[in-house]
Amino acid sequence: MELFIQLTLTGLTNGAILALAALGFVLIYKASDVINFAQGEFLLVGGYVTYAMIGQFGLAWPIGMLITIAVSIGLGALVERFVLRPLIGEPIISVIMVTIGLSSLLRAIVSTIWGNTPKAFPSFIPSEPVKVFGATIGADRLWAIVIAIVMLGLFTFFFRRSKEGIAMRAVADDQQAALSMGISVKKIFAWAWSIAAISAAVGGALVANIVGVSQELSHFGLRVFPVVILGGLDSIPGAIIGGIIIGLLETYTGGYIGHGLNQVIPFAVLILILMVRPYGLFGQEIIERV
Amino acid sequence: MNSGIFHSTYKADMGLRHTYLEKARWVIFAIFLLAFPFFANRYYLTLANTIGIATIGAIGLNILVGYTGQISLGQGGFMAVGAYTAAILTINMGMPWWASTLVACVVTAIVGALFGIPSLRLKGLYLAIATLASQEIIIWIVTHWDAVTGGVDALVVPAPMLFGITMSSDFNFYWLVWALAGVTALLTANLFRTHIGRAFVAIRDQDIAAEVMGINLFKYKLLSFAVSSFFVGMAGALTAHYRSIVTWERFTVDISVLYLAMIIIGGLGSVRGAFFGATFITLLPATLTNLGRSLKSTFPVVDSILPFIQQAAFGLVIILFLVFEPEGINKMWKDIKDYFRLWPFSY
Question: CA-to-CA distance for B112 and B75, rounded, in angstroms?
């Protein structure tokens, strides 16, 4: 029972981080129908920039975090303007490939600046073990859940209440109609990429806080796929619930069965979901069938 | 003065090579390929062999992605199937290299068709994600099925012999790999003159229209996966025999991306494009390495960041090609040809 609670807690925290990474992914897909294979690299950049601000320049963490978010906004807007915009209307394979190229480029830039060796992260979130229901867990992991919930709440509020959020939903729904209502689709795309980069940066900082900064952070880019497919590519609640389910699944298989099965189970689930319910749990049922 | 190439007979229209100039270019290229190993040193021979293997793999992937329009991120996994099948058969059952290569091709074709099943319900982006999952699953099986694949440890394959001659020396392997690459190119080019190949193209252009015209999507999509994987498996098996060491690290998702980059940069849906792409992507890091070596004395920092520069260049090249020349090197080649053919009256 203790193991179960332990695994559940770990799974929930992993799921929260996965959900944060998935959130940016879903945002971009929702607004612009682009699958971002560089989402993991956004996490990587976020983690390293936070590391640089707090660890190398010795800034206080709120300031460091703010600068990281500013950098992320810039990165997202830059990528949208110079990489994705020329590809509007190109076939899907080009769009997939360009984000893959982008991921390679971003990883190379990060490696050039910070090198390839993992760095100890100056943890600004307390990490002493806490007892919950008889299981011990690092406080930073609990904080990850809290921060993820706060971020998700902020995003939900943003989409429900703010003008930009509503405009973004309009663009996602119908670009033509949005254009005729005076919404700048280009601006909305830039927004979507910037917000995706922010959520990735926060996710990156969280992961870095728990396990340290290294190139491993970019692996989240691939781990996000089962999450978004399970939850539905265009659903924000889906990203959250998908993240939690996949996070729990990974830790349960890792804890009870082992053999590295936790790495592959999500992908088996992914294929299964794609075969049975390609739009995921909460996605819109608009997928084209063959 | 011609304004274009026009065919007045069906035979000419169906021909593989249309003009004398085209035939002459092929003769020159063939002579170059035949003469190359006698002049090149070992370094260039190794590069040429790598390009040869990559060409076979890229042509295979192009059948699936370029001609049939099914995006696959599972190339690395399929190559792993080919390489491991060839290696295991050679090591454990003492099969000669040519037999194990052939069996590896067939096994990869079957595995490819198996993992192609999701393509019956999915397309575009969803299929790309599904093939990505199959890539991860294949590599997981390879690294965890210790009894057969040796897990994460490397397999050492004995040197391939033919009539008492070691084939894995760079010079001898050159003939083998380029002969196979030539056969692959010829088979593929001819495949798209048959009804099967045309069915593939029809599926790419409009799957519903293709089905209405009586093309069995189920059959032809799986066939495309199988044919493509056959050649991909060949590339994998050749890698095993050439390098004589098989490890899973050679077949990760990065390899899938590498091969996709080859066919996109070279040109989708063309054999020549696959060759161009394979050459370009193989030579790019090699050229950068050489450049780095010559700069090392003046800028010592180059040495330590060279791998990152290669990675950045790879990403940058993909982005630049997709933004400025989405149809790849093949299109550039056509433009150059047109320029000279229409000169001085090009419009």
Answer: 9
Task: Evaluate if residue B228 carries a pLDDT over 90.
Answer: yes
Which residues lie below 8 Å from residue A77, measured CB to CB, with a gap of 6+? A190, A193, A194
Helical packing angle, B125-144 and B97-115, nearest 10°: 130
- Structural domain contains residue B268: no
Query: From B69, which residue of chain A is nearest by alpha-carbon distance?
Result: A93
The answer to whether B318 contacts A104, with C-beta atoms less than 8 Å apart, is: yes
**How many structural domains does chain B have?**
1
The predicted pLDDT at position B279 comes to 93
Per the omega criterion (within 30 degrees of 0), is the bond before A122 cis? Answer: no
User: Containing domain of residue B71, as a range?
Assistant: 17-251
Kindly tell me if the per-residue pLDDT of A288 is higher than 60: no
Helix B75-93 × helix B42-62 angle, to 10° = 120
Q: Is A74 an 8 Å CB contact of chain B? A: no
**Assigned domain for B283 exists:** no
Q: Which residue of A has its CA nearest to B71?
A: A93
How do residues A119-128 score in pLDDT, each as one tens digit?
A: 777 777 776 7
Can you tell me the distance from the alpha carbon of B80 to that of B214, in angstroms, rounded to the nearest whole number?
A: 35
ipTM over 0.90: no
Q: Does B260 touch chain A (CB under 8 A)?
A: yes
The average confidence (pLDDT) of chain B is: 87
| In-domain check, residue B116 | yes
Q: Do B133 and A86 touch (CB under 8 A)?
A: no
Nearest CA in chain B to A36: B125
- Any CB–CB contact under 8 A between B30 and chain A? no
**How many angstroms separate the first and last alpha carbons of chain B?**
14
Q: Is the pLDDT of residue B336 over 50?
A: yes
Q: B278 lies in a domain?
A: no
Nearest Cα to Cα of residue A74 among A154, A193, A186: A193
